[in-house]
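Batch manifest line 453
LIGAND: adenosine-5'-triphosphate
JOB: complex structure
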Amino acid sequence: MYEKDPVKIFVVEDDPAYTKFLKYVLGLNPDYEVEYYTTGKDCLANLYKNPAIITLDYSLPDMPGEKVLGQIRGHDPNINVIIVSAQEKIHTAVELLKSGAYDYISKDHETKERLLNSINNARNKTSLIKEIDHLKKEISEKYEFEKSIVGTSPAIRRTFALLEKAVQTNISVSISGETGTGKELVAKAIHYNSKRKSKPFVAVNIAAIPRELIESELFGHEKGAFTGAVTRRIGKFEEAEGGSIFLDEIGEMDLNLQAKLLRVLQEREVTRIGGNQVIKLDVRIIAATHKDLAEEVKGGRFREDLYYRLLGLPIVLPPLRERGNDVLLVAKHFLDQFATENQMRKFKITPEAQEKLMQYPFPGNIRELKSIIELSAVMAEDQEIRPQDISFNSTARMESFLYQEMTMQEFMYRIIRHFLNKYDNNVLEVAKKLDIGKSSLYRYLKEMEEAGI
Ligand SMILES: Nc1ncnc2c1ncn2[C@@H]1O[C@H](COP(=O)(O)OP(=O)(O)OP(=O)(O)O)[C@@H](O)[C@H]1O
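JOB STATUS: finished
ARTIFACT:
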């Protein structure tokens, strides 16, 4: 798409014969919009026209080539300046390239090919840069909080408030929540809404990498560091330089590696395995786990010092069953997405089907909801999703929390909390649903508050 755009080229050349030659060569390509100047001053005065490429004669009558180059770079470092010179002086060429010239070409019988090649390469580079900028913009729009993280429940609103805080600083963030609650989505949203958004977001799933490979995956290795290390490998931390690293399933890391990670986080530097060069790091850490890390610390499976290092700003993502009406909002979001992807008309969910969705506890959370919804859209006879189109993967119903061991009173508090979330903290509605008196409910709420539930 970008390569079709015409390229604006300035030719700055005081030799009339050479200008004639360039006019002929460049005139052959209809995609080139060329303007000719004979002095450095003229060229500089017209930079406002935003040329993509400038071919610059090194010895102009009014200004030395390096000075013109310096001013062009000062105006816009993205302009590709190709220096064309009558003599081939390696030293000058190297100096000019160091000062940011894109290429250095001497005037000889091969000039035509080399110049066209260089212009072509510069053009490809420019279109790649434009395309990358465009994709980056698209990604950050995709991860705007309220566009990507669907929901209006009090629980998710609290999460948004924390995200707003997280993006303003470089503080480490630890995200916990059951599987499929959106931990990776939240991590990406933090990165792509922060100042680091134009730098890499690198995700590493600790549980998915064989134990013996994690260290080299994270910190890299030098060639020959161990059997099988046939080439040097850059680690994920280095890859994320300037950006963010997302350490998913951090609770799965073994104690030995935890010690090494702690050192990296404390020193803010890595050394590749088998190497001795210390590499400074500027990387934001976002860690996630579905485990209760505090419990892991108590059980001696997770280092306490590392736990505190990683904790930073903790974000707890509630399970979908505690997000009330969000179930329906997210379901609708996935349905719209499905319709767009498959060029279909939009779907509706009948009230009975909505009721069915609201009754299910979604042990696999939003990921499970997504697959259930997509299947229901496939099964539906028309653009209405009815109860018979929805099939749940698990036979679990609300009793999922019964697997936990609690006292009767704690169960009751959990049930109340669940309904409060479901009905947006509407006490009257909850009292009605649970068929208890309003004042009893207020009394329980007070007890719950005192007990921190
Ligand atoms: N609030 C939300 N709104 C819309 N989509 C969401 C929301 N939360 C999660 N998703 C989507 O649900 C899917 C699962 O989310 P994600 O992979 O971030 O979960 P996770 O907690 O990292 O899972 P796991 O613990 O299994 O790694 C993704 O497709 C994600 O885009």
